[in-house]
Structure formats: structure tokens, C-alpha cells
Amino acid sequence: MLAKVIENEWIQMPDGRSLAARIWLPASEGPAPAVFEYLPYRKRDGTAGRDETTHRVFAEAGYACVRVDIAGTGESEGQFDDEYSEQELSDGETVLAWIAAQEWCDGNVGMIGISWGGFNGLQLAYRRPPALKAVISMGSTVDRYADDCHFMGGCLLVANVDWATQLCAYLTRPADPQLREDWRKDWIRRLETVPFSALDWMSHPTRDDFWKHGSVCEEWSRIEAPVLAITGWADPYVNAPPALAANLQVPCKAMIGPWEHSYPHLSRLDPADFHSEAFRWLDRWLKGDRNGAENLPAYRIYMQEHFNPTKAYGPRVGRWVAEQSWPSAHVNDRVLFLGSDGLKDNATVGTIAVSSPAHIGQTGGYYCPGMRIDNDLAEDQAADDALSTCFDTAPLTEPMELLGRPKLKFAFSVDRPVAQIVARLCDVSPEGVSQRITFRPLNLTHFASHESPQALVPGQDYEAEIDLNECAHRLRTGHFLRLALSTSYWPLVWPAPENALVTLHLENSTLHLPIRTVTEEIPPLNPGPPREYPKLQAQQLRPASNTSKRDVLEDGTIVLDTFDNFGQKINPHHGMTVGSDVRMHCSIHPDDPASARYLSGWHFTFKRDQWHVAIETEQSMSCDSKYFYLHRKVRATEGLDEIEVFAREWSETIPRALL
User: Fold this and answer.
1) Can you name the residues that pair with 230 across neighbouring β-strands?
2) Residue 538: what pLDDT?
3) Residues 139, 115: contact at Cβ < 8 Å?
4) Rounded to whole angstroms, how far apart are CA atoms 421 and 426?
5) Can you list the alpha helix ranges (DSSP code H) found in 12-157?
6) CA spacing 20 to 30 A to 431: which of 122, 179, 243, 339?
7) Could you tell me if residue 201 is left (phi over 0), alpha (psi between -120 and 50 degrees) or otherwise beta?
8) Number of domains in the chain
9) Residue 84 resides in a domain
10) How many CA atoms lie within 13 A of 204 on its CB side?
11) Is the separation of the CB atoms in 123 and 299 below 8 Å?
12) Tens digits of residue pLDDT in 510-554
């Protein structure tokens, strides 16, 4: 049973700032273990609906739950500086110590979170605070350069500016006047000092110390708290769970289901019982229950199969499997050779050219499915395959299971100093429907290093490798495996400055497949359907809706426009009405990668009685062959008559260097 909810508690930092916390306390007598979630997304409204489905349930199961806003967000005081900053993490250590010292806590604290909260849970574990005894990390990364929304394979992701635009909108929201008398002064300061995050992140195009900070792969042994790592195959953060299971020296279990970037019980793709998984882990390490959590299989996986891929949410096809240890002896490397007539068992000689129109990638979906309302999943890849250089196997005479990270090793030359190549693996049905299994780009100037890239010499021979993203996929008899290569992948990857011709040297080009062969499966212990959980009973004033439209202009420019109206609701606990929407525009001409354009605009409204504020933010990015151009606008109004209280624009020019 739940004893009470403390709507707001102030936690003082050593420098005098106070962070705002919402606390759910269990009804049990005496101190209890605690669960901590630490985010910039506003406990008061931003995550209130989700918190109702997690922290209230945990409190009813005997945990004290603490949801804290990061400095400069929500009601928390101070200045937000950057994601996963030293301030954020040192503040997190202070909060952990504060929680452990409260009379309602027995000194044992666990962290849970998805995305930002999954990241900083691992990062705080890396710092070894004494009170932190367990972590549940979902949709996270162990390497901030290699596997976050900024860069992938040394290529700039469009998600970098997209996320920066969203974060700007989030950071300009005011504190609640019910909790902060100085809300207006603080709001103006937030508007005036909001970080230009896209600029900050793009100023670090290589894997330097900026990205190594917070990357727990730098020293695996520093993590001493047991970790349960969870994600979904429709989530971009698929590489962390198996990497953690393979490298941590403390108890660690990995699980990947069919889900998008969402808590599993809230997923729109086969929702699952997250609560039971969480309780088993937390009960073992925070309460000391001998429930066998440490004996779970190291890696539990939803093995996907071919279905009809569309951008809309729909059911997946597959089954749960498990590997008791990871890496597993059941997975072995099979080498296929790239040839002029497909993927073969023997090496061939010769060359094949890869050169793609700039707009290839239209069926690739949104970088982070789960952030939009719908229509953000990868579709049938056939249209993009037709514009790619493809290597196919023969139709399979028996099923093939892949589990792990396929690797492409290749020798190449190129006609430009900067170029990229994108590798996709697809399961193609006898009817020709192509389902993407995994993908990954590589900025070819990073062929030797992500820390010290170098311009390519046209005509010179090089060798490179691409470890494609983690996958688990079973190809049926009669289907065939396709390796599709392209020199662009828009609008997921920002294109190279010029069209490039990449020449593959086939005698040194191989595809390495992680083939899983099991004679007898162990019980997968897969999560069942979600249990009943409470939901925030907010009054809906405007329903959510979304649109997604692709057009071809008269000059051949390909345009994608999306609009997500997240609706408007009244929170039943404090009466605040919140509404928001976002529009996004991407365009590119097939013949000109430097024509790439991105624009996004967010709109937030907050109301209660006579209090009414609104924020509009817009950010755009364009380029030519030498520079990136960033432009940002922020406008804020107050009152029912929408009096403008702030308006500013920023413009920045960034040399492309080797991007």
C-alpha cells in the first residue's frame, strides 16, 4: 500500500542550490529501500503520467521512490549546462547520499530510467557512490560518441539537431508558480541562457574527451552495482545491453524485446511486464531476497522474424530465446564474400562501384521510434534497395538465425576526400518485401580511428570495418539475406558534402555473420503481458494526433513534413493545463547532398487560473560543401493576451571539417 506522496521536497546541494523532488512513500513501517530516477523532463508535468505507472507501483511494493529534476529544469534551481555534465553527476551523488540518510530509507538505493535516466544511472554507478546498490538501465549507451543520437560511425546524425531542438524547447519551460515564487525571474534567465546544444555537440566531431566523459566503456571495472540492461529492437540503443553483459565484472543481465524507445509496459509493440522484471532485480539487490535474479540467463532476446514492415506501429513476429552466458558458444562467425553476383562462400576478384542519390533512406524511419505519436518505424526497404548496391545470398534452404553484431570488412578507394558508406542487412521474402535487420554508417575518413580521422586521397586503397548494430533475426527457408550499400542515408544521416564514388575491391571484402545454432533451447524466462498498473487520470482537452507527408517538388527535391500534436491535458493533482506540438521538415535534392535542410518548431502552453505562458522554439540547419549553418529562434509570451516577454534569434556557422 502507498502511504503518501510528497508533491515537492527540496534537496540542497553543497553550493546552496536546491533540486526539486517528488517522493512516493510506502505504507510499511520502518525504513525501506529507495528507487531514484533523475531527469530534466519535469516531474510536475513532463513525466507525471509515466511516473504514475512506475513509482506509485514501486511504492506499493515497499520502495520509497524519489523522482528528481536535474538542475535548471522543472522546479530545480540552478543553471542547466549540458547532458550528463559534471554538475549533473556530482549533484546526483549528493542526491543519492541525501536519500540514503533519510529516516524513511534503509540506506540502500537503486536507480531506474530509460534514455537520459538510463544513461545517468550507469554513469553514476561508474562513480561508485556508496548508497547505489543496483541499476536498471533502459534505452541507454555505454559509449556516448559511438552510440548516441549525435554521431554514428563518425557520421553526423540528423537526430543531433533534432534532439537539440527538442531539448531547447524543454529547457525554456518555466517552473510552476505554485512551487517557485521566483518562477518568472528564473524563467527569463532560462530563456536567456538556454544552451545552443547543437553547436556544442557539433564542435566535437571526433571521439575526444568530451564524449569519453560519461562513457562507461572507458573502464568497465568501475561499475560495482549490479545492472539490469533492457531495450527494444525498435529502439536505437541496442548495443549497450549485450556490451554490458559481456564486459561488467558484477552481476549483469541483458534483455532486448520487440519494443520501441519506451518502458516495456507502455510499449505500442507487444507491451510486457516490466514491473515483475524490476521487482526481481531490485528485491534481490536492495532487499536481499534470494530470488535467483543472479542466475537469470545473461542475455534474453526476442528473436524477430519477417513481417510486413510499415512505418505505423503494429505487431511483431518472433519468439523469445535466451543465452545463459554472453558471449555465447552458440554463436559462431560465418564469412561470406562480396562478389559481382552476390554473397558467396568463396572469394572473388574485381571491383564494384557504390554511388547513391542523396535522398536514399526514405524508408529508414525515424532515428528514435517512440518519440513521435506514430509513423516513425522503418518500412519495406525495397525502394531504397533499388537505389543501393546490393549483394544477395541464394534463397535459403534452411533457416538462419543471427544474434550479435554483423561485421563488414572491406577494401576500397574513393574519388573524394570525404565520403561515407552505409551498410544495411535485410531479410527479403520470396515476394520481394525487404525488412531491415540492422544497419550502420561509416564516415570513411574514420577508416582507422574515430579519434584521429584523416582526409582520403582519391584513388588510394584503404581498408575499413563496420560493426553493424546488434540484431537478433531468424530468416526462414526461401528468404534471402541482402547486404545493401549506399553512400547516403537521408534523413537519418547527414550526407557527405559531395556525391562520392566508392569502389570496393572484392578480393578483400567480406561479411561476417554471427550465426546462432542451438540444439536445445533453455527456458527464455520472457516477460509476460503487462500487469494492471495505475494511470494518471488527467482530463483531456485536446486529443493527440499526427501526420506524416512526403512530397516531390517540381525541381525534384524530396520533402518530408511531419506534425505531432501531443494534445492538451489538465493534471488532476495540481490543476496545471499543458499542451504541446511539434512540426518537422526535412528536404534534399537527389543530385546534391549539400542541399540537405532540416527545420523543426516546438510549441508549449501552460495554464492555471490567470497564469498563462507559451513558448515557441524553432531551429534549422543547412549546409554547403564547406560549412554547416545553424539558426535558432525562441519566443515566449505571458497572459491570456499573449504579451511577448522574450524573443531572440541565434545563428552559427560551423566548418564541416571531415563531416
Assistant:
1) 138, 255
2) 94
3) yes
4) 16
5) 48-60, 86-101, 116-126
6) 339
7) alpha
8) 3
9) yes
10) 17
11) no
12) 999 999 999 999 999 999 999 999 999 999 999 999 999 999 999
d(CA 583, CA 368): 16
Buried b (16+ CB within 10 A) or exposed e, 598-614: bbbbbbbbbbbeebbbb
* Same domain as 162, residue 135: no
Q: Is the pLDDT of residue 1 over 80?
A: no
Residue (of 144, 159, 162, 163) closest to 208 by Cα position? 144
- The C-alpha atoms of residue 152 and residue 422 are separated, in whole angstroms, by 10
Q: What is the CATH number of the domain that holds 15?
A: 3.40.50.1820
Q: C-alpha cell of 506? A: 572484392
Beta bridge mates, 465: 409
Q: Is the C-alpha dihedral spanning 95, 35, 535, 601 positive or negative?
A: positive
For the stretch 423-447, pLDDT in tens is: 999 999 999 999 999 999 999 999 9
**What does the angle CA 495 – CA 141 – CA 304 come to, to the nearest 5 degrees?**
80
C-alpha distances in angstroms, 366 versus 137, 261, 559, 586? 22, 11, 14, 12
Assign residue 460 the CATH number of its domain. 2.60.120.260
Q: Which amino acid is at 325?
A: S
How far, rounded to the nearest angstrom, does the alpha carbon of residue 28 sit from its chain's CA centroid? Answer: 37
**Is residue 522, in this structure, part of any structural domain at all?**
no
Q: Provide the grid cell at 210.
A: 568530451
Beta-bridge partner residues of 440: 423
605 residue type, one letter:
T
Residue type (1 letter), 159: A
pLDDT in tens, 41-50: 999 999 999 9
Residue 530: count of CB within 10 angstroms of its CB: 19
Query: Are the beta carbons of 112 and 37 closer than 8 angstroms?
Result: yes
> What is the rounded distance in angstroms from the CA atom of residue 275 to the CA atom of residue 56?
11
Which among 203, 201, 176, 199 is positioned nearest to 187, based on CA atoms? 176
The cell for 385 is: 534497395
Whether 521 is in a domain gets the answer no
CA nearest neighbour of 253 among 236, 241, 238, 261: 241
Residue 436 sits in the same domain as residue 352: yes
Does residue 416 contact residue 456 with C-beta atoms inside 8 Å?
yes
Give the torsion sign (CA, 474, 395, 485, 336): positive
**pLDDT class of 124 with cuts at 50, 70, 90:** very high
464: exposed, middle or buried (C-beta count within 10 Å: 0-12, 13-18, 19+)? middle
Domain range holding 50?
2-144+213-323
Residue 41: exposure state from Cβ atoms within 10 A (0-12, 13-18, ≥19): buried
Q: Which helix (H) or strand (E) holds 210?
A: helix 209-212
**How do beta strands 252-257 and 227-232 pair?**
parallel
C-alpha cell at 619: 531551429
Q: Fill in the DSSP letter of residue 638.
A: E
CA dihedral sign of residues 229, 233, 235, 236: positive
- Element (H or E) spanning 132, and its range? strand 132-138
Report the C-alpha gap between 120 and 266 in whole angstroms. 21
User: CA 470, CA 514: separation in Å to the nearest integer?
Assistant: 10
Q: What's 470's DSSP letter?
A: P
Q: Which residues pair with 545 in a beta bridge?
A: 565
- Looking at residue 100, what DSSP letter applies? H
Helix (H, G, I), strand (E, B) or coil at 167: helix
Which residues face 513 on adjacent strands? 334
Distance (Å, rounded) from C-alpha 337 to C-alpha 343?
5
